[in-house]
Specification:
With 450 residues, this protein is an alpha+beta fold. It has 13 helices and 18 strands. A hairpin with a 2-residue loop joins strand 4 and strand 5 (108-110). The relative contact order is 0.18.
Amino acid sequence: MKSYIEQNQTRFLEELFSILRIQSVSAKSEHKADMYLCAEAIADLLIEAGADEAGVCETLGHPVVFGRKIIDPKARTVLIYGHYDVQPVEPLEKWNSDPFEPVVHDGAIWGRGANDDKGQLFMHIKAFEYLVSSGKLNCNVKFLFEGEEEIGSPSLPTWIKKHKRMLKADICLVSDTTMISDKVPSINCGMRGLSYLEVKLIGPNKDLHSGHYGGAVANPIQVLCEMISTLIDRDGRVTVPGFYDEVVELSPEERKMLARAPYNEREYKAFLDVKELRGEKGYTTLERTGIRPCLDVCGIWGGYTGEGAKTVLPSEAHAKISMRLVPNQKSSDITAKFARHFKSIAPKSVKVEVTAHEGGDGFLIPISSSAYKAASKAMYEVYGKKPVPSRGGGSIAVLAEVQKILGIDPLLMGFGLERDTIHSPNESFLLSQLFAGMESIALFYQYWKD
């Protein structure tokens, strides 16, 4: 595979750049046409790579790309999952270059989707192309690329249920995660779930003059801040009743295994430019971001925020809150518990509305499986180090649905790095990781035999 990459590197980058230029922002309705354009471009790449068939399939939302190559109906089948939609690029002024005009400098591709997830799904297409062209493909391959992962995959579970037979496979191979570093490879053996909500507090029936009414009428923004401040206690634990009921504590042996991941707190703080860390008492930083649930305020607003002064006591206040969940916690259950609790702690001076947005459950996979062992062997050959099993702090909510509906485990061979700043301005993806990913994926097929 290494020589194949060297021979085709220029073409690979041209093809990848062609889809990076498409503004497939799923969260914005004005990019609906771009979603179809990107889906069609990826379907074309699959056909050119050697798929028997590939096309764009309608869903209730943005389209799905499905493709496959069947070498033997009786052979084992890999289902490759990825997503072609990307996050919005704002704030645009923070980018060092046009987010939809990818460039290469400092050994990396810079642009929206370079890592998450166009660059990583592209690795699978090129590894597949190599295996087909060299006659080394030893199993059936199916591709499922969606256009709604960045908005919570609302349409995909229904589509998967409808096409369950067509999607039948033995393993779901995914590259949409990070590894510890390019010197210490890792394989995610689990990811957290998500409950994402918006809360709205309504006070007086209109905005009021802060001089005429200030001090006499409750300010919804102040009330919201007071309510939010009670959601996490002094030990960093979420105070929603029943929040931890289903959380399973890891054994000392399991925590010791996860602690194999290298961690330097001084470097961690320096990278983030913070002087102190905080979180749930009794757990390390890596445990807090991998094996423990948490609650965060992702946005808060209300009143006047424009230029200059406006002396107003606002009628409304809003906040967006995300809760990352660990396996066994159910997103729907946590959402209901939060809504019930948040309304119960509100004073009579305000009315409360809670709206659920994204949600999904977490999952775990066994590191004893033949697929995990094959991935570990493949990455060891490429990186020269045995990958560390890790837990992903983020969420790919639909993978729990894939696991449940299709009855197969996801295998997370991600090649992104923290330095890639996905979801933020100046997203990037190291060329070395792009090519190492292609090599590792191709080797996975060779070693996945049991």
